[in-house]
Amino acid sequence: MGLLDYVEYDRVQGWRVGRFRGWINTNCYLYRLDDVLIDTGPPNQWAIVRSILLSHPVRAVYVTHHHEDHGGNSAAIHAEFSIPIYVHPRGIRYFEQGFRLQYYRRIIWGMPSAVKVQAFPETIQTEKGLEIVPIHTPGHTDDMVCFYIPQEGWLFTGDLFITTRPRIIRKVEDPLEEMRSLRRVLKYEFQVIFCSHRGMQQRGRQLLQEKLRFLEDIYDQTAHLLKMGKSTTEIAHQLLGAEGFLTWMTGFHFAKKNLIEAFAREILNPNRALNRESRE
Ligand SMILES: [Zn+2]
């Protein structure tokens, strides 16, 4: 499909690219803030990303995390435009050595190539003097960051938001860690967010608060139902509904049960009081 949408908000431009329009997780926004590109789009959209960058040059690329729909064109951009690619230190190995990509992901987004990347400095300035502060927000992946723009009260959220009611997660995601990351970013002053899948959201702060409350509520209900002797499969069905097409299509990589199982591991962990200190 190629270019699915274009948005402009103040000095931010956003392009939504992807192979399929229907399901928002299959396409991804790349944002340009002054002379900085945030995220690079999936590898199978390289032709459109290349033409965007030819007409809107950038000086550097900051990637929120290594997933192929976000960092997938890093190698091609680096080769074509000779500009640096910055990632979180924990992400370097994924970009330089690659990572496992399930078959369905290769079909939807394509296969990224390896590229030499750098860890970003603590703060960065755009050519027009706007400060960009990377905030480490693991959970979705261990290398994910949000980019905070203090002067404007903006937050580029990568995949921290996506929805207020996350019911399906990948097996490798850590929702407890994600909840800590949500609490961490909510300590900063911001209102507008730029989500990689939902685009710009004026009520961004409230949306992130809603997501955190939803996860806390599911966590508490899971604890209650475990105490009553229910299994994680029963709890997932009761709180989140039946597994859907996506779960079957991805061979259970994406599933509702993953969320409940991650919570159950924490709840049944004898050291959990230590892990929950930041909540109270
Ligand atoms: Zn992701």
Could you please describe the fold and organization of this structure?
The protein contains eleven helices and 15 strands. It is of the alpha/beta class and 280 residues long. It has a single domain, classed as Metallo-beta-lactamase, Chain A (4-Layer Sandwich), CATH 3.60.15. It has a seven-stranded mixed β-sheet with strand order 1-2-3-4-5-6-7, with helices on one face. The chain has a six-stranded mixed β-sheet with strand order 8-9-10-11-13-14, with helices on one face. α8 packs across α10. The longest helix has 24 residues, at 204-227. The termini are far apart.
Q: Beta-strand percentage?
A: 15-25%
Name the structural class.
alpha/beta
The CATH architecture category equals: 4-Layer Sandwich
The count of domains is: 1
Largest sheet: 7 strands, mixed
How far is the N terminus from the C terminus?
46 Å
Secondary structure layout plus pairing:
Elements: E1 2-9, E2 12-18, E3 27-33, E4 36-38, H1 46-55, E5 60-62, H2 68-71, H3 74-81, E6 85-87, H4 92-97, H5 103-108, E7 118-119, E8 124-125, E9 131-136, E10 145-149, E11 154-158, E12 169-170, H6 175-185, E13 192-195, E14 199-201, H7 204-227, H8 232-240, H9 245-249, E15 254-255, H10 256-267, H11 272-275
Parallel strand pairs: 4-5, 5-6, 6-7, 11-13
Antiparallel strand pairs: 1-2, 2-3, 3-4, 8-9, 9-10, 10-11, 12-15, 13-14
Helix pairs in contact: 6-7, 7-10, 8-10
Which descriptors apply to this entry?
single chain; 280 residues; alpha/beta; Metallo-beta-lactamase, Chain A; seven-stranded mixed β-sheet; six-stranded mixed β-sheet; 11 helices; globular; binds zinc ion
